[in-house]
Protein 1
Amino acid sequence: MSTSSLPRAPHHDVAPSDETALTSAKPESNDLVLEVKDFSVDYGWGERAVRAVRNVDLDVHRSQVLGIAGESGSGKSTLVYAVTRLLRSPAVITGGDARLFLEADKDIGSDARTLDLLGASERELRSIRWSQVSIVLQSALNALNPVLRISAEFDEVLRTHRRDMNRHQRRARAVELLELVGLNEDRLARFPHELSGGQRQRIMIALALALDPQLVIMDEPTTALDVVTQREIIGELRDLRARFGFAMIFITHDLALLVEIADEIAVMYAGTIVERAPAASLHDAPRHPYTLGLLNSSPPLHGEHRELVGIPGSPPDLAQSLVGCSFRARCPYALERCAREAPPLVGIEDGGRMVACWLHDGSPTNLPEPLRRKASPTARDDLAPRAAKEVRS
Ligand code: SF4
């Protein structure tokens, strides 16, 4: 995992390395793991800067799986890598806050419980990577060192963070972790290129769980895999989450896949969140035209196979200043107002749904029919086995 830091815009102070960003502040909600407020990231400086993430609020709770969906370039990976300070220049955090609330029973060499991620020193960031927050990247082949056997990858992570473990204990822990993801001990002696794509990705998941982190970030972890292996890994992740209770941020462009694993989904477009809702509600009854477009362009989870319809047009140029709704040029329901004013993300309906769209002016009868559907009482747990069964049949 890279440990390079993301520079912040000049108007933010960066904590000197001998100061601490750890405090004893408590989260407003006891089960909050990560809180991100009004967070913005640019690539580059000045007039030519690309506004990749704009004023995003996000929170993740213990044991929750938060899915982040959107097309390439929507800002979903930039947001998460910036929050965890893993992006390189020319990315610049131009505003906002990000706080990690630490588990009480983890030894981080301090009694502090809150880490201001944007003010944290490299030492503080190193202490929480792997142990509190770990990341599984899209391409395991690139993430694993091609000249190291798998045993050495596990040994390095455990040796760095668990000085109390001897060589035999580290080996035993590696075997235990491989078993968790359904792999035999003999894989430890292999090099990455001797394993299948699914096996490599399972090894990345096992490495991510090596130190019992409270938050695991999955960045398109199954994108490079065939559809059957994808579904198997999603099922294994669901089981692991239920067993160990870690929270997860799962990033993907595949909204249908996300519904199988996420409790809640945030849909990003042009650097902002345009809809956030419980996963099953969002799947059954999207309220933002972009969410509807994403669902119409994904194979259905169950029922009849239908023709897929892509979203016409392209996302806006984020180096230009945006006026009005950023989805306007592609939206079949655009109103005159959409050209002038950007819709805010506001709560609608019960059940914690938020949407940024002027169509939701409080009058449901004004909504186009596809955005008026009722969410069925179907729980995500009912959807997933059907989806897996369809894939395997
Ligand atoms: Fe479409 Fe207007 Fe809603 Fe934007 S605000 S998604 S342009 S209807």
Protein 2
Amino acid sequence: MNTIERHESQVRGYCRAFPVMFDTAGGVHLTTEDGKRYLDFFAGAGVLNYGHNHPQLKAALLDYIERDGVTHSLDMFTTAKRTFLERFDEVILRPRGLDYKVQFPGPTGTNAVEAALKLARKVTGRERIIAFTNGFHGMTLGSLSVTGNSFKRAGAGVPLANVTAVPFDGYLGDNTDTLAYLEAMLEDAGSGIDKPAAVILETVQAEGGVNVASFEWLTRLAKLLKRHDILLIVDDVQVGCGRTGPFFSFEPAGIKPDIVCLSKSLSGYGLPFAVVLMKPEHDVWEPGEHNGTFRGHNPAFVTAAAALEFWKDDKLTKDVEAKAARVTDRLQAIAKRCPSLGASVRGRGLIQGLAFDDKSAANAVSAEAFTRGMIIETAGIDDEVLKLLPPLIISDEDLDAGLDIIEASVMAVAEAAADKRSVA
Ligand code: PMP
């Protein structure tokens, strides 16, 4: 047992799956204190879209620290905040015809979700929120109330109220239109659902098992909500910042959510940072009404502004699309090679999953991959999906190396399962 295991609470999680002592990191690799390198296909659960310690972001941060730029300032004016907002408007919002106001909540994803839920309730004067099966939005009470996972929900210790869960796209199989159900519930005064303030969703449910909402479903949902004067909150904490290709995951659906939550890869460097974007007419906050000590961390403004260089043209989006096609092809071939595990491929852009009918397979593949020098996680309520989340800037060579490890690991698990069956 090491010092960390002795002292840190039982709540620790990822170190149990990857029990080595990491020391340094760069690009797509993490290195342990004894020099073993791991290829990172987890990327901090979507934090490291530009890899670990990207040199340009590091240079901007070092320069800012060196010249004694303000580190902490509550939400006072700073040049670092000014630069971030100027660039964000210029590179991200304006080219997409989005005139969102920007709120800096606390620095984590769940902080952004809490603020978004509060705002939607304040704007509409309604209490109810509609959330989707297998959605994941964070661990604080409001976020938990819109999260599906019963294990995480039970941790709340109090009732999680004022939320109605409805089936996500595909939840009831390919032949059931889950939006038709929602539409009927909203339109029927006898449905038992109070008129909601908002609907919150991930366009690709990441923790919930890499479940993809089709663009057509998203477009129809946005229209339905508009008709009923219900706000649409897109939680782009994990699949925003280019994970699916475009900067915002919802862009190809042609929708403009009322409220958007971003965090994880927004600072680009792994520094905690989150924003809530809202249509200007929804900016009904009183000054200081949603407060906090760490709202808009200056070093994160600096690296986030530097990371926007990636978005000055569509090169990264095109790269993600090309790499995504490569990943899908390889995963489909791998799924075909192991029919006994019942594998299928899902995902969009560089969040892709290999879902197994054999519920123990994904964890076993992750463990096998770890012995082969790779960090890769699972998702889904039973951890039944191997979730590929490599940094977006990964080279084709590293991508192929990672896919080779996944293939070898899947085959090892399939063979072990076959051996077990033959002994039985
Ligand atoms: N929303 C989504 C979609 C997420 O994936 C996560 C984190 N996995 C969160 C919210 C919560 O973010 P955080 O852990 O930073 O609070």
